[in-house]
Amino acid sequence: LVASLARVRSGDAVTRLAATPAWKGRLALDTRGTLAKWRLAFGGAAPADPTSRLAAVRCVFTAYVLLITVGLAFYIAIGITNH
Amino acid sequence: VRFLRENSLSLFFGAILFASVAGQSVAGVHQYNADAAQHGEKAISWARYLVSPEFGGDLLENWQSEFLQFSLYIIATVWLLQRGSNESKMLDDAGLESDEKQQVGEYAQPDSPAWAKAAGIRRWIYSNSLMFLMTAIFFLSWFGQSVNGWRAFNNNQDEHKSAHISYGEYLVSADFWDRSLQNWQSEFLAVGSIVVFTIYLRQRGSPESKPVGAPHDETASSG
After folding, report:
1. Which of B59, B96, B133, B210 is the most buried (most CB within 10 A)?
2. Which residues of A touch B142 (CB under 8 A)?
3. How far is A71 from chain B (nearest CA, A)?
4. Do A83 and B148 lie within an 8 Å CB cutoff?
5. In chain A, which residues have their Cβ closer than 8 Å to the Cβ of B144?
């Protein structure tokens, strides 16, 4: 249990689960769910979800690329068309 | 809360970018209208100023210099070194480095980007993708500055009852090069300064500085 908790706290539970026997995996999953409830109950953040965290980073990256692309296209068009 | 914390650096700079552009546009339209009043022309609205070549030229003039600075910095730091600087690589690492150190091809990690594992042109493109994008943005911004600057220059010629010039003439004009070089020089000074200042000066906790206790001749360490 302690080892499972340590894995969950490290935020690396999903990848480590793949290498654990099934009963350990179930234990870790149960532990993760319980830990999430505890953290939410006490005002803390939910355990890390690597997929959603990467999606958030992609969102920020895309926002910067879009901002630069739109800004460049818009003002190049203004210059070319002599608005 | 987690999203804000884990992306706070990019969100902070995005927020002050918008604040600065807003401030620039407000100050810019006041300056534009003061100039128009002096020449007996009517004032324009803030919204009209936002889509004017005067504003577009000023905006892209600064963009191009920033992206030139980072493009040069990215490529120059591959080969050029500065002993003692946090901004330099280790003195023995000049160059493109080995595949093993760069974790490409057979040395790629299981979670490495797909194009780092690939061979040939795909790996070459991905290996230089940061420089490619920054350089492309530099050239596009510089082009945008030139066409907007040309239109604004000719608008100014109208106010002074002078003849228009062609785009080609503007590209070799003092106005275009004065605007470009005055931005470039400040970027190069700032980059050179941080390369040299980080040899002897520190900012505790910043990755842009060596650790506070690092020796002055220690190169490439990050605090």
Report:
1. B210
2. none
3. 9
4. no
5. 72, 75-76, 79
- Angle (CA) B15-B18-B21 rounded to 5° is 145
The string over A15-29, giving b where at least 16 C-beta atoms fall within 10 Å of a residue's C-beta and e elsewhere, is ebbeebeeeebeebe
B147-187 pLDDT, tens digit per residue, is 999 999 999 999 889 999 999 999 999 999 999 999 999 99
Cβ pair B220, B107 in contact under 8 A: no
Q: How far is B109 from chain A (nearest CA, A)?
A: 15
Distance CA B47, CA B145 (A): 20
B63 touches chain A (CB under 8 A): yes
Question: Which tens digits make up the pLDDT trace of A34-68?
Answer: 555 545 444 444 455 667 778 899 999 999 999 99
Which residues are CB-neighbours of B46 under 8 A, at least 6 positions away?
Answer: B25, B26, B29
Residue B170 near residue B150 (C-beta atoms within 8 A): yes
Which two tokens mark B171? 């590209």
**pTM metric for this prediction:** 0.81
Angle, vertex CA B208, rays to CA B206 and CA B211, nearest 5: 60
Q: Does B52 touch chain A (CB under 8 A)?
A: yes
Predicted-complex ipTM score: 0.90
CA distance A73 to chain B (A): 9
> Distance between CA A8 and CA A27 in Å, rounded?
11
Which residue has 């070194």 as its token pair? B81
A53/B contact by beta carbon, under 8 A: yes
Q: Which residue of B has its CA nearest to A82?
A: B151
